[in-house]
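Lay summary. Proteins are chains of building blocks that fold into shapes, and those shapes determine what they do. In this project we predict the shape from the chain. Here is one chain we studied, written as its sequence of building blocks.
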Amino acid sequence: MSLILALALLAAPDPTPEALALGRRLAETGTFSTLIPGVIADEREKLVAKFPELSDADKALLRATADETGKAQTDRLMDAIGRGYAATLSIEDLRALVAFNESPAAQRWRAATPAAMMGAMESVGDPDFQENARKAFCKKTGKACAPR
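And here is the predicted shape, written in a compact code that computers can read:
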């Protein structure tokens, strides 16, 4: 299935400049872009924690460097996602989606999303899909009961 999608994308004409611009706006106003800053901050602090021997000044520089790296990677990611949207959605759909994503209601929705997702993850429990599936399989069959 993914091969068919890849071939279809390769065969599709290049998106127009308008489609690319709208795709980028859609990416920048999407749910994923709302979550990225939190992920970057979390990863940044995990990185700093790996180097307790650094001075406070060096830790501050590492944090700043991580933020710069995160910004550059996010920029490339938004371009790539935007290009994907531009290649697969019509101009009309792009315009409608961007209009919604830039609306006050959508902005409030995105602002609420990280807390809603964290709350959902806490209430659902352990999100380790593979381990949970292995445990369920073990319970049903008595097989694959040792974690790997």
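What the prediction tells us: The first helix runs from residue 2 to 11.
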